[in-house]
Amino acid sequence: MVVAWLQFLACMAVIAIAGPSLTRSAHAIARLSGMSQGWAGLILLATATSLPELYTGISSVALANAPNIAMGDALGSCLFNLVMLVILDALSRGEPVWRRVDQGHILTAGFGVILIGFVGALVLVVREGFDFKIGHVSLYSPLLLLLYLIAMRAAFHYENRPRAVAKEPAAIVEGETLGRSIQQYVLAALVVAGAGAWLPFAGLDVAAAMGWQTSFVGTLFVAAATSIPELVVTIMALRLGSADMAIGNLLGSNLFAILVIAIDDLAYGHGSLFAAVSPAHAVTAFAGSIMAGILIVALLYRPGNRFFGVISWIGLALLAVYLLSAYTIYLHGH
């Protein structure tokens, strides 16, 4: 048991160390290449912080034969990303965070509701015989890929709509070049790849040592480990006064996590991934859709009241849904 937990914690530590470097280099690439901050946060930064989910998912299905860890990691990461909004809410002093961000995040959150909810429905309906495949690949995976591309195209057009805001010149950091930033990005990605590839094996060992089901371990523990870069970026962005970048990264990471599920299905050679996983993952997916819906309400309503001057009812609602879904998965995992 001790060895299993030490391996798992070692993977978490590596991701925690390499994650910030990956994020800083991705941010530098965006700044030096002239990308807009919103588009950079949604694409480059979200992709960078989601690499652990990608590597862990592929390793889970292709090497460890642990489809529940792959699905649990992707959907659990979506929940972790949304519950991080509670941290933004609590740490945001003065004006509430919901009043400080662009309402354009509603677009990304709306696509999140669609994609995450769709995966939850697939986990249930595929088990009832609605499983259409070409070879071992489910036909639903290309559809997920198409929806992801539509979401990115819509976000791109929204981000590039005409605005009356002048662009600020990029800050120049001594010794920082585009080539060096790309090298740092690739190096950090390789380190995260190694830790992410080993993570599902450590997760299987933890599940076996504790007598837990892999769906529970993947959704709560593996997802927590692979979500460390998002947590670091969220706190760093808030300290820099960029709540928009933080929320854009979290919502973009959720969309990328659904893309990871489609990639995992392609890499899973034993049949449809959706048919191989536990139906308990539908609970996680529907909870993620509800939490994304709560965020949409917050961005439209922009509440200003807080309980005890610390957290709003939006933050409490997000936390309640997360804890309820985690408890449900916990019961199923025992």
From TrEMBL:
InterPro entries, alphabetized: K/Na/Ca-exchanger, NaCa_Exmemb, NCX_ion-bd_dom_sf
Location in or out of the cell: Membrane
Residue ranges of the TM segments: 74-92, 104-125, 137-156, 185-204, 216-238, 250-268, 280-301, 308-330
This protein's record includes keyword Repeat: no
Residue ranges of every copy of the Sodium/calcium exchanger membrane region domain listed in the record: 4-150, 186-330
Membrane protein topology class: Multi-pass membrane protein
Keywords: Membrane, Transmembrane, Transmembrane helix
Top-level taxon: Bacteria
Designated name of the protein: Cation transporter
